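Quick start: read one record
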Amino acid sequence: MTTSTAPTAPEAPENTTARRVTDVLQPRNVLLAGMLGIGLAAAGGHWSGLLWGFLGALCAGLIPAGYIEWQRGRGAWGDRHVVDRTKRAPIFFVILGSIGAGSLVMVAGGAPRDILVTMLALWAMTIVLLAVNTVWKISVDAAVASAVVTQLAVVHHPAWLAAYALTAAVCWSRVALGYHTVGQVCAGTAAGMATAAGFLIG
């Protein structure tokens, strides 16, 4: 005797696009590309800036992403999005510890000022996200995308503000997939912009 299961309904076209956008522009990818650019600009175009940028991306994005994958492997979370707000606190603490450690390495190694200040801005942003997350779900993806664009605009060139189109795409994808409300992605965008601009311009 055989049993049959109902076929899975195909994902709506707009959701397929949203899924691709949110996967391509997830924080670890945005941070990897953005921190390399920030590091290079901070070092005045010298190749050593790429090394500092990669260290920043490693600590702010890749290590936290690895932690999430590890927890997924243990069955603690269903996917990388961790849609349950109450389960997000450990991720924020991993991010804070990782960025803190990376910042200390940068200080000890004499990293360019702007890449170090960028790390401190990301650390401060994480504090804000953690605090808000205790009472209300806020979009981390939107915050990271917004922060990186602002940081590139300040450290490299104001023309980078045009990349806020990518931040808008991230926000749209998060809402389209049902992970966040419009208010949550707007709050994340504002948090990323405010902390990045505050540290780098101040």
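The chain has a mean pLDDT of 90.
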